[in-house]
Structure prediction request, 228 residues.
Amino acid sequence: MVTSRQAARERMMRDIVRVGREHLATVLPAELSLRAVARDIGVVPSALYRYVQDREALITLLIVDAYDELADEVDAAIAAASRRPHRERLEAAVLAVRAWAVREPSRFAMLYGTPVPGYTAPGDRTVGPGIRLALALAGVVEDAWRAGELRAVEAPGDPAVRADMERLREAYGFEMPVGNAARVYGLWSAVIGAVLFDTFGHYAADTVTDPEAFLRAHTAGLADTVGL
Prediction:
């Protein structure tokens, strides 16, 4: 049973995240202010420090929240496409990343844009949520391998890269060949880069007239690359 104190803490944490999100729409992460967040929640700053120690803790809270929300939406998109071919599941996942980024550009930039000056993300809090997207993309490819629908690709020629990918395969229990695992790791960065280009207007209007259609085509090429 949740005590009244626990319920009050949960409400306050939800309010901190909600107001922090609102502030990220108008200021950079480095400009976040606990005093301003407290004001908009309607409490004195000293009350907020019982829940969030400093600005860095607030940034961490918002980063974890953003990683989890993005991954939740990608997971839902993959689940909704579970009866479709694996290539289409991958496309659904990538389009879900784009949809979230377009809707939440400031939060997407916080995750994958310029690092916040003076801030070091605590790995014990952020790595788990941060790799959920990569694992979701990898999961589509791994499912294809286990279903006998993935083409094995050549392993990396560089011994160091091959060793890294073997270690990652073992750490996450993947059965796909090491060559496919290496390309899946590259898939993660390719998707983020493509969505960054799209979200922040790096495609000239007279070159890519339909960014979503271009992303679909790009994803089809990435699917070929990973062996789907």
Summary: Residues 1-53 form a domain with the Arc Repressor Mutant, subunit A fold (CATH 1.10.10). The two ends are 48 Å apart (CA to CA). The mean pLDDT is 93.
